[in-house]
Amino acid sequence: MLYRTRxxxxxxxxxxxxxxxxxxxxxxxxxxxxxxxxRARTVYRLEDQAQARLGRSDPARLVxxxxxILLDEWQRVPEVWxxxxxxxxxxxxxxRFLLTGSATxxxxxxxxxxxxxxxxxxxxxxLVERGLESPSVSxxxxxxxxxxxxxxxxxxxxxxxxxxxxxxxxxxxxxxPGRARRAQLDGYIxxxxxxxxxxxxxxxxxxxxxxxxxxxxxxxxxxxxxxxRIRRAATGGEGDKPARTTVTSYRDTLHKLWILDPVPAWIxxxxxxxxxxxxDKHHLADPALAAVLLGAQEGFxxxxxxxxxxxxxxxxxxxxxxxxxxxxxxxxxxxxxEANVTHLRTKGGRHEVDLIVERPDQCVLxxxxxxxxxxxxxxxxxxxxLKDRLGSDLLDSMVSTTGPHAYRRKDGIAVVPAAxxxx
Length: 423
Prior knowledge:
Distance between the termini: 25 Å
Number of helices: 14
Number of strands: 13
Strand content: 5-15%
Number of domains: 2
Shape: globular
Largest sheet: 6 strands, mixed
């Protein structure tokens, strides 16, 4: 399959120009190996049992060869991490090692690799990377402040955003026709339940219970539902809830597999607020995984149908999955701009802002995500509240929409169709 340039490619080139080793991390099928292969001259595929045995018997051999050296699925031979770290200590020349990993190893390395191996997250394809539209608004520019004029027009409509939710951002899955794509995504979930947990040293006694918990988590997409509420929602019958310890092991293992990708709460260093809530906002690595777990396809979502999982939401399932789609893209763009993505929610939920994109100097861009074309004064009330609190530390405010035009409102707030936002 022809390689399509990713936003992370520029990040990698910048890092490898000065660093000896970079680890690309993310869930299976996200494109880590394909990206690394664009640079590697020597490749060790540690998912191959023969190469893994060689690595375990003589790890030092895995750092020999023409550089850059790719150690693909390095977690299969965890000791190679320490071998690379020592090799970097001995020779810190740039562009020597690429490591890819789709799980955190069950036996972690003795050293974190801090200062020697830099970790870089690869997420599924953003909207820009899918070729949906040519972006006219740069997130990096919004982070520079100054409320610059915006322009741009798109013909992308709601139905196409819904198609992107169910299509997934996994490069090899997205181009497939509908039924084949659904089968692949369902097989992706089945592999997690039937194989990946076991390979992580967490055998699943009741696969149906794990799948029900994952379905409940999918129903909580873009909410801050408590772990206990999700556990109760996973009940398959009277008294059939998974135990709390079981849920904890589920959550920890899915984090290690990069399947859960929650957005943490914003905890500002400066004292802007007296009462902030600290729960994560729940997201799977790709909203298509949530859709397939919930049995939600395009027609189901466009009709406004709801699933039977008993979890309260402020809005429709489509609205929450749309927020997850936009959030996934914003995180890709923010990483390229060396910015961090969180969300804001005061205790009691009186004020909420969907995404806070924060520069290293703690100045922020605030983003609300709206499933609709038009933006009313009511839609921007929390952005105005935040501006009153942050003053000049708020660089800009934006509402992501499904409308056709990018523009600024009279109050200065940017309105940007999701397809027109880019890095």
